[in-house]
Specification:
Helix content is 43%, strand content 15%. The protein has 11 helices and 8 strands. An 8-stranded parallel barrel has the order 1-2-3-4-5-6-7-8, surrounded by 5 helices. The longest helix has 16 residues. The two termini are 17 Å apart. Bound molecules: 1,3-dihydroxyacetonephosphate. The site of 1,3-dihydroxyacetonephosphate (13P) has 14 residues, from β8.
């Protein structure tokens, strides 16, 4: 059975007071919804306080990035076992902001993916094309390159314990959402690419859409057959919006 998931990516937003208000509203708003999984991916310093609010609820927490290295002299980095210490369940790897602004190659992303799985964390692997790549007909080639880096390093079965998020870069934070059909086409392409390697892994693979998902467009995106949920940026910071998006997937 393919799991349905809504993940919030807070990016570099929030503070102790705001986080508590946001989380308590979300906890109340999602109480009792059981057939969808929810997760918030928060900045590192807040793990402890987020853990204390969310433990025992139906909302998991995770990180937005992690080091590919186990431990050592890597100033400023955070390891997978540190995430485990705070009972994180998920970690985003390969977000386009990391690939573009922090020069993470597909190989580095694959190493982070594998490191996360070694300690039982579920990686949320982001893939997606720029506007220029889409306009020059390169979308599928880019997605395949990003996906195959992970499959080559970790094996296709690694996707049994992972989530993929298709996030077209031109739709992130721009208010320009991919149309449901545009998103569906890429999701179907991803699933087909995985199916060519292993059919049952493909059938069970959760593929999220991310990029300007809002309360007013979530339902039509989630209605597409290969869209299993969302990775939500801006709207995950507004409790009523995030709750509405989560409920759109639940219905
Ligand atoms: P927005 O929802 O703000 O477009 O961000 C999407 C995203 O990057 C989630 O990881």
């Amino acid at each position: 059975m393919r799991k349905k998931l809504v993940a919030g990516n807070w990016k570099m937003h929030g503070n102790l007071v705001e986080n508590k208000q946001l989380l308590s509203a979300i906890v109340a708003g999602l109480d009792g919804l059981l057939n969808v999984q929810f997760v918030v991916c928060v900045p590192y310093p807040y793990f402890s306080s987020v853990q204390s609010v969310l433990q025992g609820t139906n909302i998991a927490w995770g990180a937005q990035n992690v080091s590919q290295y186990e431990k050592g002299a890597y100033t400023g980095e955070i390891s997978v076992s540190m995430l485990n210490d705070f009972k994180c369940s998920y970690v985003i790897v390969g977000h386009s902001e990391r690939r573009t602004l922090f020069f993470e190659s597909s190989l580095i992303v694959a190493e982070k993916f594998a490191a996360a799985q070694r300690v039982g964390l579920t990686p949320i692997l982001c893939v997606g094309e720029t506007l220029e790549q889409r306009e020059t007909g390169m979308t599928e080639q880019i997605i395949e390159e990003q996906l195959s880096a992970v499959v080559n390093l970790a094996g296709v079965e690694s996707l049994n314990k992972a989530v993929i998020a298709y996030e077209p870069i031109w739709a992130i934070g721009t208010g320009k959402t991919a149309s449901p059909q545009q998103a569906q086409d890429v999701h179907a392409f991803i699933r087909k690419g995985v199916a060519a390697r292993n059919m049952s892994v493909a059938q069970d693979l959760t593929i999220l859409y991310g990029g300007s998902v809002k309360a007013n467009n979530a339902s039509e995106l989630f209605a597409m057959p290969d869209i299993d949920g969302g990775l939500i940026g801006g709207a995950s910071l507004v409790s009523s919006d995030f709750i509405a998006i989560c409920r759109a997937l639940h219905n």
